[in-house]
Amino acid sequence: MVYVVHYAHVLAMAWLVGGPAAAWLTRASRLRTFEGVTWAAFGVIVATGVGNVGALGDGLPGLASTWGMLLLAKLVLVLVLAGLSLRRSVLAWRGTPSRRLYGVTALLAAVIGAMGVWLAHG
């Protein structure tokens, strides 16, 4: 079961990076559908991320450690990503999508993903 959670987390992260990157590089005509799938992936990321931290629990270093500080920075960036993604979704639903926001959210998701890899594998 642990592997299912890890794979779901990684697959959802792949969508959060690749989806906006593809939308940024192309003129996607189905951005509303894309946004719905993206928010579903965001929900999977949050749920599995919380599950991963909860499963490891006491074995994790404290927030005062380098690992803990990076985790805190990652969580702040996830909140920033959520805010930017919300703005991007609102613009897409209004029919005025911002290609710049697709690029920014793809880049930010990639940075968050890299931080996650470092946190998982040191």
Could you explain how this protein is built, in words?
This protein is mainly α. It has one domain (2-121). The chain has helices spanning 2-25, 31-56, 66-93, 99-121.
Brief write-up:
The protein has 122 residues and is mainly α. 83% of the residues lie in helices and 0% in strands.
Q: Which tags fit this structure?
A:
122 residues, single chain, mainly alpha
Termini distance?
Answer: 23 Å
Total number of helices: 4
Please tell me the overall pLDDT: 85
Q: Give the fraction of residues assigned to helices.
A: over 70%
- Largest beta-sheet characterization: none
Give the helix/strand class.
mainly alpha
The percentage of residues in β strands lies in under 5%
**Are there runs of 5+ residues with pLDDT below 50, and where?**
none
What sort of overall outline do the alpha carbons produce when their principal axes are compared?
Answer: elongated
Order of helices and strands: HHHH
Count of the separate structural domains = 1
Rg, Å, rounded = 15 Å
Number of strands: 0
